[in-house]
Amino acid sequence: MSISIPQNxxxxxxxxHREEINRAISEVMSSGWYILGEQVKRFETEFAxxxxxKHTIGVASGTDALHLALRACGIxxxxxxxxxxxxxxxxxxxxxxxxxTPILVDIDPGTFNLSLADLEATIRVWKNxxxxxxxxxIVPVHLxxxxxxxxxxxxxxxxxxxxxxxxxxxxxxxxxxxxxxxxWGHASAFSFYxxxxxxxxxxxxxxxxxxxxxxxxxxxxREYGWRKRYTSDVPGMNTRLDELQAAILRVRLRYLxxxxxxxxxxxxLYDEGLRGVANEFRLxxxxxxxxxxxxxxxxxxxxxxxxxxxxxxxxxxxxxxYPVPVHxxxxxxxxxxxxxxxxxxxxxxxxxxxxxxFPELPEGxxxxxxxxxxxxxxxxxxx
Length: 383
Ligand SMILES: *Cc1c(COP(=O)(O)O)cnc(C)c1O
Prior knowledge:
Elements: H1 10-16, H2 18-31, H3 38-51, E1 55-59, H4 62-72, E2 79-84, H5 89-97, E3 101-105, H6 116-127, E4 134-138, H7 150-159, E5 163-167, E6 175-176, E7 179-180, E8 187-191, E9 205-209, H8 212-221, E10 226-228, E11 231-232, H9 243-254, H10 256-274, E12 290-291, E13 297-300, H11 304-313, H12 343-351, E14 352-355, H13 363-382
Parallel strand pairs: 2-3, 2-4, 4-5, 5-8
Antiparallel strand pairs: 1-9, 6-7, 6-12, 8-9, 10-11, 13-14
Helix pairs in contact: 2-9, 3-9, 4-5, 10-13
The structure holds pyridoxal-5'-phosphate.
């Protein structure tokens, strides 16, 4: 085993822009100001421009962004929030952090995003149930960088008077009908965890919104409930984006569109390379009218575990996002108040495999991966 191809590489992202990032870090260190200063302010403005929204508010993580967005929208105890179970556990954890109850719906097996049919059925059944939990919001997740069907979700939400808070942790720069993910809902949450499409070198997150009042509420909530320093108007928390991460994010934001394009080019190379074994693996689909930003390139295989093992022997590293759906995790199993069966979610957890994907991944490595997959596919056919 000589070759070694990583699944992701935040370090390659650093090395690609090393001088600019080092300069940004050095400027912050020399400025003498390290928390909520000029860099955060500028990043918030630049990221809002990028998304075409009025405000973004920097916070300490994607989990906090989602938690705070829900709280600022007035969602808390006694409120139900619909989301999916085939996602990072943070999506569901944030709903409970806000005091609300997660209500899980199944996914569309083609896109891994929430199933509109199951969403409608869940709303209908829930509204007619004797539960005291009031249905308040939907949290669509743009999983793997593929946008969820926002026009339909917004229409459904308006009809049932529900708020929509987008989980954009995997979808920086993704678009639906030319409009960015994160600019559709009442608010949206981003993570800047190092492996995300827009990654810091530490933790970070942001909330985006067009609503002035919501933005003000979020700024207050992120720092002890202060409207004015040392006066807490509401019980708040400490969840701030720091100056170092903001300065780094400002550099990386300048390259985001170009790096997302590179991810799409690599995805096309995978598509072409794997066309011959499409029977063996199900390749990702791109919904018409959307711009998929390929946070992950995820294939499905009935022999997933065997395949992952085979690739590892060839020095090719892959990951499983996610091996256990949230509703089956020890912290949640049997505890969530009410759930419809989630067969597509459970099937996806058995079949998904995330291939190497990051902007600096050499094209030759994609060819190595597709060749190995082809070999596995052909030998599997022969059995
Ligand atoms: C990464 C991620 C989060 C959480 O972000 P953190 O910054 O790690 O708190 C939430 N939702 C999804 C879909 C994610 O991928």
